[in-house]
Amino acid sequence: MMTASxxxxxxxxxxxxxxxxxxxxxxxxxxxxxxxxxxWTFQIEDVDPATAALLEENAQDLNLFYFIQQPxxxxxxxxxxxxxxxxxxxxxxxxxxxxxxxSRMAYSNEKV
Length: 112
Fold this sequence. Notes:
By secondary structure, the chain is mainly beta. Helix content is 8%, strand content 48%.
């Protein structure tokens, strides 16, 4: 659960080699995550066309990593992906990129 003092981070990486494709939070892009009837939807604001094209070109191999940091708590981590291919929509007029995925797995690095 997000609180006023929580910070959310979103990283979009390539499945092969874990190459960073888009550090959403590092680039300071506002984004939302919503649970949908068939999975989850990420909506990212202020995405330039080249980044949207990069995501579309690599759609088959996208891994989305979502972290929530809350003061005094362990970081909550989740990996989002699609079993087939994420649905990506880009609204060039509003520079908004929307990604729809069907799978989520919570994880922790505490016992590594």
